[in-house]
Amino acid sequence: MIATRGRLIHWIALTGLLVIVTIAVLVWSSHGLSYPNPADIRSPVSRLGQNSERDRSVVVTRYLLLCLDSLSRGKMDRAIASCDAALGLDPKNVTAFKLRGNANLQSGRSQQAVADFTRAIRISTRDAEAYRFRAGAYSAQHQDRLALADYSSAMALTPDNPVNFQLRGYFYQIRNHYRLAIADFSTAIAMQPRLAAAWNSRCWTRAVAGIDLTKALADCDRALELAPANANAWDSRGLVYLRMGRYRAAIADYSNALAHSPRLATSLFGRGAAKLRISDRTAYKDIAAAKAIEPGIEVQFLSYGVKLRANGPSGT
Length: 316
Prior knowledge:
single chain, 316 residues, mainly alpha, Serine Threonine Protein Phosphatase 5, Tetratricopeptide repeat, two-stranded antiparallel ribbon, 17 helices, 2% strand, globular
């Protein structure tokens, strides 16, 4: 299995949450209220007002914002508590179920995530986003048939949305179905040519699979044109250069990735592997740092043809 550098779950969470936060902030601002303080999760509802339907809606929105804020900060328990509070006031709030499902999924509680997304779907049967989220949860459980069925449902509901193909491409990618993944990323690109994540994903997949490295390089070049601050795109192109034997170019790209994301283990390990090829003794520091962050990193690189030996990497 290839490393996805955490992109699958993060993408699943962010695709919908970006929309949710926009709506929530607009609702919140429309009431002339300031952004909530996370400490307010402990405040009695009576202090916030629930004498009218409008007041109740304001309180629910407050809790949803707290949930989203907690998700963005990686505070999953607080996110779940905030969504619980929202659902206590509005038991059929689809957004709360989807947010709580994402918090559960990112906490490794995939069964609870499936239950949350299923509740959202039962309330709103045509919610394509909820199907995409549940597909991600099923994927985490290795229930491939159910995951693919949910991706198909999302595609049927929103056939022109490139996110459907991007996410299914990730699904195929982490299962080493590289050509199917490339096909889905290509469809996403055709639908939305400026979708940097799809260009990067197709580059990364071609790189780890060793499928047409020249095309992989072109894909990464385009991803970086669209998103020059994306550490994953620099990391992907670093791998392409490493597999091409262009070691100094690989080192430069991995260094750019680390400038944006200093603890990106794939970039540390890749840079170390490239440095070994040019007899740079600082390679061992990079490799040790990568292993400290992600102990299985060497096995990941072995899966796409990069192995270390005493006098440098081989198989690249």
